[in-house]
Amino acid sequence: MQMIKCPWCGPREEVEYHYGGQAHVAYPAEPAALSDEEWAHYLFFRDNTRGLFAERWVHTAGCRRWFNAVRDTVTYRFHATYRPDEPRPVTA
Amino acid sequence: MSETTSTTATTAQARGSFRTPTGGRVDRTSPVTFTFAGVEHTGYRGDTLASALLADGVHQIGTSIKLGRPRGVGAAWAEDPSSLVQVEEPFPDPMLLASTVEVFDGLVADGVPGQGRLADIADSARYDSRHLHVDLLVVGAGPAGLQAALTAARSGARVALLDEQSEAGGSLLGSDELLDGRPALEWVADAVAELAAAPEVVHLQRTTVFGVYDDGFALAVERRTDHLGGAAPEGTSRQRVWRVRARRTVVAAGAHERPVVFTDNDRPGTMLAGSARTYLHRYGVLAGSRAVVFTTNDSAYRAAVDLADAGVHVAAVVDTRDVAPAHWAVELERRGVPLRTAQAVVGTRGVERVSAALVAPYDRAGLAAGARSSAGVEPEAIECDLLLVSGGWNPAVHLHSQARGKLAFDAGLGAFLPAERLEDLLVAGSAAGTFDLSSCLRQGGASAATALSELGLDVTAVPVPSAAEQPPSSSSSAPDLVWVVPDPSGDSSRQFVDVQRDATVADVQRALGAGLRSPEHVKRYTTIGTAHDQGKTSGVVTSGIIAELLGAAPDAVGTTTFRPPYTPVAFATLAGRDRGQLFDPVRTTSVHDWHVQAGAVWEDVGQWKRPRYYPLAGEDMETAVLRECAAARTGVGILDGSTLGKIDVQGPDAGVLLDRLYTNLMSSLAVGKVRYGVMCGADGMVIDDGTVLRVAEDRFLVMTTTGGAAKILEWMEEWHQTEWPELRVHLASVTEQWAAFPVVGPRSRDVIGAVFGAGGSEDGVDVSNEAFGFMTWQDTTLDGVPVRLARISFSGELAWEVHVDSRYALAVWERLIAAGAPYAITPYGTETMHVLRAEKGYPIIGQDTDGTVTPQDLGMAWVVSKKKPDFVGKRSFARAENQREDRKHLVGLLPVDRETLLPEGSQIIEHREDGVLPSVSETGPVPMLGHVTSSYRSAYLERPFALALVKGGRARVGELLHVPVKGRLVAVEVTSPVLVDPEGARRDG
Amino acid sequence: MTTVDAFSTDPADAVPHTPAAAAAGRLNGTPPRTPGADLPEHPDALWKNPEPKKAYDVVIVGGGGHGLATAHYLVKNHGITNVAVLEKGWLAGGNMARNTTLIRSNYLWDESAAIYEHSLKLWEGLEEDLGYPILFSQRGVLNLAHTLQDVRDSVRRVEANVLNGVDAEWIEPDEVRKICPIVNTSSDIRYPVLGATYQPRAGIAKHDYVGWGFARRIDEAGVDIIQNCEVTGFVRDGNRVTGVRTTRGDIACGTVALAAAGSTSVLTDMLGLRVPIQSHPLQALVSELLEPVHPTIVMSNAVHVYVSQAHKGELVMGAGVDAYNGYGQRGAFHIIERQMAAAVELFPVFARAHLLRTWGGIVDTTPDASPIVGRTPYDNVFLNCGWGTGGFKATPGLGWVFADTIANDEPHPYAAPFSLDRFVTGRLVDEHGAAAVAH
């Protein structure tokens, strides 16, 4: 079980959080302008990186706030957590 | 249990004759009586089942799973691969090890013939868990672990010292070592006392750290009452899970002695050498009377010497090496113990116990070689009833490996060792491959010091007690690396690698011959390492044998993966308190007790308990629901709707957020008005629905379904926070804060008026249609308590929802009930609510939808805004699949026979002229058009009816279809889903 | 139940006929019999370990159950034998070695029922086909319902199953008790059992035996099984892939078939192909060997349990999927703890069973909880992935259908609904709400 550092609350147990999938996938500015294929990619297609992955988490049982993390999907280790308005940090 | 064991056990001269007159850690003033294999035995408090049985001369514990060969005590703790027992009393417990079960009065156990047996009744013991946060977790209270814990304690760190045995000391318990010139166990006692006095130290014995996970998380199980039997205090949990979060962990878990495989190495009386020493020193038990010691390294000499000193006739020490260690050779000679170098045990004799070791010159050619140098040489039989074996030591690297630390094979030790330092986990003592006492102590202290200084804590060093002089290294000999002593005749089918699985060298050879190379494949082919002990002693040996047979390095072969738990843990222990009513929280409304009094029958809706219906005496559900429905349609009914989700949406951009999430426009809603809305996922499928009240310009109350409450709040937060953080809006759940009671039916105006009207309430409400229109709300008070009334109808009837602070809800509910008495107000449950709404064609999200249904499919195109440029889900409506004419639509179904209640979930097929369901086996699958989502008897319609999702359903209104019900086809007519009051006349009373 | 003479599929009938047993003899006459103690021996020859050839007609990436079964049916149904199966680790060592071996076909949607039922029928003859004792034991599966909505969903699925020719029935709690007396059907548990769906033909099999049975057959037929051979890239020529780069050298290929659950995205990324898959850890666990206590398979959605008692007597359970993406073949322990609570809640007699071992696999999940099988934008690359927790039970069925798709260069009718383009059109096969507990 991970200890995850909420950018607002600090380190808390993994069970307090929910996972939210890939980060930095913005809702399209004009969905109506997208082709079916483009829309499908927004809806259903996400990176499935083996290694460092920028992803979303929410501190459900804490402050209920969303944040982003860079985590290694092989070791599961968190390399960074950051607020949604911050850019993805450079991680080793 | 086999008869042979009983025979052995009851042999008078054998019983009770193996306890030393003095010594050991057992309490000789506290005898305990227990039963094994139907025979009563006496042991002492402090004994394990194995030590007490060995003291009585009982070696055979059970029989092996496949071959039915006798199996005995192979070791003195959890690495024992063979002493499996079934505990019968005080409560059936399958598969424990005799070498780890502590005896107590009244213990009844048997050997396990391969499979354990579960009790056929529930376990009434309690289990619980605790959390522990420490700077340093020390695993193992042997010399290294104690020194580590002392160092951390004196440094003022928060420490957890967890050890799986009944008392601290680790390997010192099974030895006669001196520290600082006095018995080592006195040093242990002092250390334990110091730790007990240290304020920040948690020291637990009988506590096994069974798993190490991420970020310093470790799990341990504490066996709190198992050793007390019937004397266990009432109310104390039997076992406790400790969830430890440690900034650093020092693993000082010791090492397991490694067997050497030879022919017939499975007979009872065959034991790891160090374990016999433990039985002697810790339990005061001689594991036999006449011993042969077979070794490849120096460590077993200690056992030979100690046993000889204790009076065991040591018939021979057999060492595979050409040169014995000089120091020990002298010690043996002094005791008259014959030493045989360059020889090996190649087999044994005996039936239920070893009676002789067969010794021959050690054939160095190895397993893979063809002709045996020993072939034809008659091995010498040395009589013995105890055969001690040592093939070296395997550091207990399990936790390091679980933490994903790398391992490397050390050819000198013949074992896998931690090959890297993990960030938050250090390994010390024999677990790290350090075997002399002084070094273990030093390493334990140093590991703790390293860990603490990395944490920025000041370290107070603890002087290392001085251990007795080790034999000079010049007089010791390098260990031999021997996995298997080749059978002289080449028959490897009785050379047991995994005695519990009856898996032999022959099996490994066959696996390799079949083309297998990976140890994972060999494990699966042979089943080695899959038994109760998970290969604690057999795993490394198997890798060694594979390497030897393939001519590869053990490193190249590797090991199978070490996985938690280190030792088995009971299901119930891990379940802890989360069982029964605590399995999942029960949510009840503030009127719950009233419902109980009223005799409600319950429905689980998410975590909520909701009244399903309120049967009167003699009523079944159907009768009760018909009565409740009739009351709501003709008089007045009342429902506890408090479980509906309620979200308070506040802020200047509240309307903007709602506009983006609902399919329809919410920002245009006037204060004081109510609007129904639907939310879709981005895929365009309906996820929830409900009413929205505009409370103020910058404030809405969003009502969700009961089941959707938490999900929808999270959904709204997700969009707000991650996509539109610029919106000035705040969301909060007020589900628990507000009770909600729909008062429903033609007489609801009378009831609401009586309670809240000018006559009933100080700021009375005019409940006329003109003053209080449909889909509007008004605030009022009742005896000073704020109340909100909203004209919302989920039944089509004239109705008000009464919203009130939950703390006053029961009083308001009772006022409503009292005021309704003249009109026979009838409380109704979820079932009636469902019937009433279904008669009106209102869908229940999650019942009439399944995540594949759009608002258009529900016939709710009207709730989808054409004006808004976008909202969540809108783009998906334009996808090809959503344009199809044959999408499933929500429709009504009326069984033509006016009698059949269609089972909910029934499938719907085309109408068949012959009225017969075609045979699937003859004509293949029968095409399905959809399914029945809701089905009820209608008091109002005086017939059963249903809602259904049907392909192209709206175009089929008026058509006949068939519904198979128990093999019979029921004809149904497709109708509009709205079957009651399609004009909407009833909602105004 | 289909059995063949050489082997019995009923563990209770397992008679020791091992050379080792015969040689060792029994020391004390007839010892207590332990049902299921003697699994059938594996054969003396399984497969060769050849060096890869320069080129193959078909290169299958992934030596798990699906890759091996695909090769088997390429040989058996289409006579295509110039085939290599590339495995980056040890054969059948991914999800094939880690799953909980449930085989059933009681899926809701027609498309799912078709392919899983096809698979189940193949399972029924697989022991004979492979000549290998795969211990397919049709002991039935109960999917428990705990809420009224569970009941509706269950009836819906049963009624659909029946019309699709899948054996299924809805049964009441007293019948649940008859089939599996140890299930807690009392009303005093948190979520009482309201009934169950029952598929009698569902069962379990011994997963290693299945993988090895396929492997031995294709090895005999001349297919090269190449282990420790990781694909590191693809050689592309326009819309075709002409070769596969591996840690054991480049291999030219006529056709490439991807069947590498747990590594799908790594491979498709190399091809620049986007696939809507997320890989998650899924854990499972076993107890010690226990006397027979659990005669069937029980699954529950609300009280998350999936448990059977395997051939040797161990309880085998699948836990819930870990929420986050993960390739680590391990998961978080709180999932296991929750699993234990659920198990003891539904099966009070399991209280003192012991957790012996936990492990994790990698499940590739899709947005609609259905697999992706068929073409890719490359002319000669075929894709099979996204089986989530359904992969093992689909093994022969998928192998058949995928081999047919490859051989005919045309999706088999059972594969067609599972094309990649359904995510664009929206024609999903949404088994989320319908598949009961995922396994």
TrEMBL record, chain A:
* Gene Ontology BP, a term: tetrahydrofolate metabolic process
Pfam families assigned to the protein according to its UniProt record, in alphabetical order: SoxD
Which GO MF terms does the UniProt record name? sarcosine oxidase activity
Q: Know the name of this protein?
A: Sarcosine oxidase subunit delta
In which organism is this protein found?
Quadrisphaera granulorum
**What does UniProt list as this organism's lineage?**
Bacteria, Bacillati, Actinomycetota, Actinomycetes, Kineosporiales
TrEMBL record, chain B:
E.C. code: 1.5.3.24
GO annotations under biological process? tetrahydrofolate metabolic process
Q: Where is the composition biased (Low complexity)?
A: 1-14
Catalytic reaction(s) noted: sarcosine + (6S)-5,6,7,8-tetrahydrofolate + O2 = (6R)-5,10-methylene-5,6,7,8-tetrahydrofolate + glycine + H2O2
Q: Does the keyword Metal-binding apply?
A: no
PANTHER family for this protein: AMINOMETHYLTRANSFERASE, AMINOMETHYLTRANSFERASE, MITOCHONDRIAL
Family, similarity comment? Belongs to the GcvT family.
Name the UniProt record assigns to this protein? Sarcosine oxidase subunit alpha
Q: Which species does the entry assign this protein to?
A: Quadrisphaera granulorum
Give the classification, highest ranks: Bacteria, Bacillati, Actinomycetota, Actinomycetes, Kineosporiales
From TrEMBL, chain C:
Q: Report whether Cytoplasm shows up as a keyword of the record.
A: yes
Task: Kindly state which reaction or reactions the protein catalyses.
Answer: sarcosine + (6S)-5,6,7,8-tetrahydrofolate + O2 = (6R)-5,10-methylene-5,6,7,8-tetrahydrofolate + glycine + H2O2; sarcosine + O2 + H2O = formaldehyde + glycine + H2O2
Region Disordered: start-end pairs: 1-44
Mind telling me which GO cellular component terms the entry cites? Answer: cytoplasm
Q: Name the needed cofactors.
A: FAD; FMN
One Pfam family this chain carries?
A: DAO
Q: Where is the Rhodanese domain?
A: 58-102
| Family annotation (PROSITE patterns) | RHODANESE_3
One of the record's GO molecular function terms:
nucleotide binding
Keywords in UniProt for this one? Answer: Cytoplasm, FAD, Flavoprotein, FMN, Nucleotide-binding, Oxidoreductase
Identify the domain of life: Bacteria
Name of the protein in question: Sarcosine oxidase subunit beta
Question: What lineage is this protein's organism placed in?
Answer: Bacteria, Bacillati, Actinomycetota, Actinomycetes, Kineosporiales
